[in-house]
């Protein structure tokens, strides 16, 4: 290693490390920016998370399940999907009582015609995945994953249809419960991965409200659509519905909102 010239101090060398070839200062990439968080900064965020949880569990949760019941009952009647919607009561570890909708509808095992139609769809999607330009690699692999998922369902229902342990109403009800669980823990998730950053409390509360409102409106429509698909397309469609259009889709929506929220100007970037 060559010795540092006498006229260049260590401080000067450090300054030069942040200069471009034209002498302009190269700002630190936002991915490397850090903020020191103490009790003064973290306490309001923690209180915000607790407040969201309290409001959700004490007020909004019951409003949400009641609205889901009304929406599902309305569309079930107009779509000819079953004969009734009921509310099932639960108690969580003897501390919290709540209800969740149960949609009654029929979804039978696939016949040979349904299996043939599904097999044709698998082949078509697989062929299309090879025709998509290589620059759209995420779409290519998404189509192949969808085709593989449906292909495994085709094989299972062809050889062992009676071994399938799930039914349509139970699946939809279980996914609605999973959606309620996701909505319940969302404020805690955001407290851990978003509130810790230097955004204003208004922006933290705003992002939380947007995510909760979107998913609370999306979930009943999401599983009402899946119930309609299962009713007309048989249980053959359940694995695809679950793996591609169930909770993974909700998680992707959450990630999209989170990425959008992280793109907002923080106090550090505004100060710069």
Features:
two-stranded antiparallel ribbon; 272 residues; flat; single chain; mainly alpha
Provide a short characterization of the protein structure:
With 272 residues, this protein is mainly alpha-helical.
Walk me through the topology.
Blueprint lengths: L9 H7 L22 H41 L5 E8 L3 E8 L8 H20 L5 H23 L8 H26 L7 H33 L4 H8 L1 H16 L4 H5 L1
Antiparallel strand pairs: 1-2
Account of the protein in words:
The protein is mainly α and 272 residues long. It has 2 domains: 53-107 and 166-272, no CATH class; 110-163. The chain is 66% helix and 6% strand. The chain contains 9 helices and 2 strands. It has helices spanning 10-16, 39-79, 112-131, 137-159, 168-193, 201-233, 238-245, 247-262, 267-271; strands spanning 85-92, 96-103. Helix 5 (168-193) runs antiparallel to helix 6 (201-233). The mean pLDDT is 87.
Strand order of the largest sheet: 1-2
Radius of gyration: 26 Å
Mean pLDDT: 87
How many domains make up the 3D coordinates? 2
Structural class: mainly alpha
Which percent band covers the strand fraction?
A: 5-15%
Distance between the termini: 36 Å
What string gives the helices and strands in order?
HHEEHHHHHHH
The low-pLDDT segments are none
Q: Given the structure, what is the number of helices?
A: 9
| Biggest beta sheet attributes | 2 strands, antiparallel
Number of strands: 2
- Give the CA-based shape: flat
Helix content: 55-70%
């Amino acid at each position: 290693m060559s010795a540092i010239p006498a006229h260049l101090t260590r401080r000067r060398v450090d300054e030069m490390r942040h200069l471009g070839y034209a002498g302009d200062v190269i700002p630190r990439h936002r991915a490397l920016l850090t903020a020191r968080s103490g009790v003064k900064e973290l306490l309001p965020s923690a209180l915000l998370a607790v407040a969201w949880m309290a409001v959700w569990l004490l007020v909004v949760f019951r409003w949400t399940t009641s609205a889901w019941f009304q929406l599902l009952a309305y569309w079930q009647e107009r779509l000819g999907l079953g004969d009734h919607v009921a509310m099932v009561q639960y108690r969580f570890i003897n501390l919290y009582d709540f209800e969740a909708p149960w949609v009654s509808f029929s979804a039978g095992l696939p016949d040979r015609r349904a299996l043939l139609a599904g097999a044709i769809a698998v082949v078509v999607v697989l062929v299309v995945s090879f025709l998509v330009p290589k620059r759209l690699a995420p779409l290519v692999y998404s189509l192949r994953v969808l085709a593989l998922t449906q292909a495994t369902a085709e094989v299972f229902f062809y050889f062992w249809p009676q071994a399938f342990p799930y039914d349509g109403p139970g699946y939809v009800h279980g996914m609605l419960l999973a959606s309620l669980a996701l909505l319940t823990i969302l404020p805690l998730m955001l407290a851990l991965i978003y509130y810790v950053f230097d955004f204003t409390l208004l922006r933290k509360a705003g992002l939380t409200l947007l995510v909760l409102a979107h998913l609370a409106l999306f979930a009943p429509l999401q599983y009402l659509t899946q119930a309609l698909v299962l009713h007309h397309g048989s249980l053959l469609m359940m694995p695809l519905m679950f793996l591609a259009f169930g909770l993974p889709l909700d998680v992707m929506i959450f990630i999209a909102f989170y990425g959008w929220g992280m793109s907002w100007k923080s106090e550090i970037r505004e100060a710069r």
